[in-house]
Amino acid sequence: MSFMIFFLVYFVAFFLQTYTIKKRFINKLNFSLKTRKYLGFALYLTFFGALLYPMARYFPLVPNWLYFLLSLPIGVIFLTFIITIFHDIISIGFKKAFKKSKISSQRRNFFKKTFDIGATSLILATNLKAIDNARHIELEVVDVEIKNLKKPYKIIQLSDIHIGGLIDKKFIEDLVKKVNILNGDLVVITGDLVDTKLEFAKPALDELKNIKSKYGTYFIVGNHEYFHGVTPIIDYVNNLGIKVLENESVYIGDENIGFNLAGVYDNFGFKYGSYIPDINKALENCKNSPTVLLAHQPKFINSISNTSNIDLILCGHTHGGQIFPFNFLVKLDQPYVKGLNIHNETTQVYVNKGTGFWGPPMRLGASSEITILNLKEAKA
Q: How far apart are CA 258 and CA 250, in angstroms?
């Protein structure tokens, strides 16, 4: 039933976007009727691909080349819809300006056709650029000053990998090689590691056993783990030698010169009815040292009444918006979208933009990232 509700909302959203593109953009282009028919056919084909995508996503039995083709339409329709809105607004402005001018109809047609060619080219170029961006993972090096930290530490943060579909064994194998080169003191994965049935994710997950660091690898669940069986995922990841922090903490480093690393379940646990985040339980065994908290969603900080005993919170979830201008919508739900943020006098929040991607293999204005967090003592 939940899948049917999701698919209905999904269908309506993309139908409305497709309808708008056809009526407000393609039908109004100053192109020949034949050209507009070809563009309309391409749009309908893209919409059909978008409808097939959820099936491929949650039942990943199709080959990667076909999955790639089925995953693109979501991003293509969204970006085309955004450009359609701007094209429509500017076109209305042109019409009003032309009415007050003495420009000939021939010149008006020339300006309109040039503008339409430019908008169509922009749609093509923007989509190609977004696809190319998703192929690359950037290193984000961030220096974080923490009070009373006796010794520097290097944390490698991964987040929102979304194993499933195009994020497969080869992707994780290459990712592990990049992480190991960085020679971190520890590696943390801040949720949404798995985004498919566990049976399909196991070959990729097994590659994570090869991550090397001084103090090990730590993981917290994100909201997507709840969609695919949070209990078996936690059990399987623990069996890989990766410590899942379940409303608990561990001490990193030597006595008195290390820090507490705590982790909580995701906010989705409240809807799920179990695996509910509990910050008090997570911090109850922390020693008198600085504390780094792993929490998948940045807005979890809003549920903490007093953050004075938390120095740094590492989050993910937002993907940095993934495809501009979606970051503005994310900001309506989350207090922080990306990067290092000063929450108050005692607490900083870092939001990783995601090491993989969700949905279309596209990114615009928000690159995939591996974060290198260099923790050092704050200057007096």
A: 10
